[in-house]
Amino acid sequence: MTESVAGRTPVQYTAPVPGTAVVVSDAHLGPEVSAAPFVGFLAGVPDLGTHLVINGDLFEFWFEYGTVIPRSAFPVLSALHQLVSRGVRLTITGGNHDRWGGDFWREEIGAAFHPEGTRLELAGRQAAILHGDGLSETHAAARIMHRVTRWPFTAAAFRWLHPDLGLALVERLSGRLGQQTRDGEVLARAADAQLTWARGFLLREPTVDVLVLGHTHRPALEQVEAGRWYLNPGAWCDGYRYALVGPDGPALRVFEPA
After folding, report:
1. SS3 category, 103
2. What is the number of alpha carbons within 13 Å of residue 56 lying toward its C-beta?
3. pTM for the whole thing?
4. 171 with 61: CB under 8 angstroms?
């Protein structure tokens, strides 16, 4: 597999397993996480599957303005548009860092965007896909942020700020708020709480075959019952992690940049 970059050898794709879905979460692309490896990963997605699911926090911050997009997001948005143009289905859910999306994803990229998660079919199995924030928070700051990102007033107030000012403000605050996502003990507690919640959800929802969560930055794959799984691909920003959901069920994977 070669990277598809102007001036280099084009990507030569192999046929993926029919119906296989590629799942990635918590890339947090921004000032501290380079987009280049993720763009390289996207170039190879057609080798892996026919459906890409981005389960929240693709960017460290995303806000959908009426007429502008952040300059730093352009390489990733362009790569996603190219992926859709090659016939790959794209589903995006909102996370606590990028829930403020809208029709841009559908009209300009060709993706289905679900700010609060969705249910759909992955590789012939019924899947529930949620980013995971607000489900089993163990830290007060995370619970507050979960509520704030959902207040209509928050989005309305932010829209009045000039984009340069708004994005600079978020960048400054995210460094402080993001300390919680780099605390190993906090993440471990959150992952344990999320696993308990996931087990209960699958017991309450017998029609769901695969529950896909993110948010905790910890990969997890547990077969709760025969043919039924809880899956968290882990954080792309922590080791280029992703997952596949194919005919034989889910599997955790790690991307190795060229």
Report:
1. helix
2. 24
3. 0.83
4. yes
Domain assignment present for 246: yes
Q: Residue 107 is part of a domain; what is its CATH number? A: 3.60.21.10
Residue labelled with tokens 């763009």: 39
Domain-located, residue 8 = no
Helix (H, G, I), strand (E, B) or coil at 100: strand
DSSP string over 174-228: HHHHGGGGG-HHHHHHHHHHHHHHHHHHHHH-TT-SEEE--SS---EEEEEETTE
Provide the residue type at 244 as one letter. L
Nearest to 128 by CA among 55, 65, 51: 55
* Cα distance between residue 161 and residue 166, in whole Å: 6
The pLDDT tens digits of the residues spanning 146-172 come to 566 666 666 566 667 677 676 666 676
With beta carbons less than 8 A apart as the criterion, state whether 197 and 136 touch. Answer: yes
**What is residue 168's three-state secondary structure?**
helix
DSSP 231-248: EE---TTTTSEEEEEETT
Whether 13 maps to a domain, the answer reads no
Q: What is the pLDDT of residues 176-213, one digit of tens each?
A: 555 445 667 777 888 999 999 999 999 999 999 999 99
